[in-house]
């Protein structure tokens, strides 16, 4: 599996897919830089007038509800309609699912459009699958990823989406397949936008593997984890981790990836 995952990393570097994000103000810069560091090409856009044309030229669409408002929700619906019409894969990051009724209502509408992939932390996945009866704190998780596996399976069954629960162990589920990745570092949760970055990178990987969103998600999360732990080794705290993480994404070599990857079923 490790060789197959490395091939996906090389494919993103070689093909440089264009990835559109409708994402939050907090992470726009971080996620654009992470996409560039892995070799992909980011574009952040949400004007209603260009949604149809923009989605027509991208390899994948990332929908992140972090700093929602009604104008952007309409942008999301316009973009997803075109993505679904053209079979462009799209990835949902349900940031803060469960935190407010508005967020929950918007997410209900987005789920009906059947995301190709959903990537959230454990609390967000639990909230989504329980129709938001699981209380959440905000954008950070108060649950472990292992607690959200049944929730992920429910979402997969209802909407057909590959579901990734991130955390100390990243768990990716699709139909009867489950993959667990135990890379990364706890300090990653102390940098804002690391989850959003995972989602954005998943967009880049599914753009080069539209036929295999499960493999795309595993490859993106494996890269996040290995680059994150390499960067944490060189960092005194979250400030330097943010910068070192971009460098690790850019410089990662096959030998480091192979040595460190911790993958299981
Ligand atoms: N305790 C941890 N140990 C190792 N990696 C972690 C840990 N917490 C988060 N990560 C990693 O940080 C990234 C963001 O995950 P997470 O913090 O769950 O997302 P979010 O920012 O959306 O809450 C993922 O790549 C995940 O694997
Ligand atoms: C803090 C915050 N508030 C709204 S969006 C956002 C960023 C969340 O990013 P992540 O879930 O990747 O930590
Ligand atoms: Mg998040």
From TrEMBL:
Q: Which GO terms describe its biological process?
A: thiamine biosynthetic process; thiamine diphosphate biosynthetic process
Q: Which organism's genome codes for this protein?
A: Chryseolinea serpens
In what pathway does it function? Cofactor biosynthesis; thiamine diphosphate biosynthesis; 4-methyl-5-(2-phosphoethyl)-thiazole from 5-(2-hydroxyethyl)-4-methylthiazole: step 1/1
Tell me which cofactor or cofactors this protein depends on.
Answer: Mg(2+)
Gene that produces this protein: thiM
- Give the superkingdom in one word: Bacteria
Designated name of the protein = Hydroxyethylthiazole kinase
Q: What would you give as a GO molecular function for this chain, any one? A: magnesium ion binding
Answer whether the UniProt record assigns the keyword Transferase to this protein: yes
What family does the database annotate?
Belongs to the Thz kinase family.
Q: Where does ATP bind?
A: 119, 166
- Catalyses which reaction? 5-(2-hydroxyethyl)-4-methylthiazole + ATP = 4-methyl-5-(2-phosphooxyethyl)-thiazole + ADP + H(+)
């Amino acid at each position: 599996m490790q060789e197959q995952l490395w091939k996906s990393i090389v494919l993103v570097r070689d093909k440089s897919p264009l990835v559109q994000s409708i994402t939050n103000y907090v992470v726009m810069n971080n996620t654009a830089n992470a996409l560039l560091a892995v070799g992909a090409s980011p574009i952040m856009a949400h004007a209603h007038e260009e949604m149809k044309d923009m989605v027509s030229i991208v390899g994948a669409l990332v929908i992140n509800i972090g700093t929602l408002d009604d104008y952007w929700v309409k942008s999301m619906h316009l973009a997803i309609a075109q993505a679904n019409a053209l079979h462009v894969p799209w990835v949902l990051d349900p940031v803060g699912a469960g935190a407010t009724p508005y967020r929950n209502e918007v997410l209900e509408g987005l789920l009906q459009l059947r995301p190709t992939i959903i990537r959230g932390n454990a609390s967000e996945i639990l909230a989504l699958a329980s129709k938001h009866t699981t209380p959440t704190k905000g954008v950070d998780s108060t649950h472990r990823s292992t607690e959200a596996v049944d929730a992920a399976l429910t979402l997969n069954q209802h909407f057909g989406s590959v579901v990734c629960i991130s955390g100390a162990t990243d768990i990716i589920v699709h139909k009867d397949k489950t993959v667990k990745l135990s890379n990364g570092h706890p300090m990653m949760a102390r940098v804002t936008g690391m989850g959003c970055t995972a989602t954005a990178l998943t967009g880049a990987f599914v753009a080069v593997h539209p036929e295999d969103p499960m493999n795309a998600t595993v490859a993106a999360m494996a890269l996040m984890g290995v680059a994150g732990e390499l960067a944490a080794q060189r960092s005194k705290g979250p400030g330097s981790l943010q910068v070192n993480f971009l460098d690790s994404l850019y410089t990662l070599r096959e030998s480091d990836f192979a040595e460190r990857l911790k993958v299981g079923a």
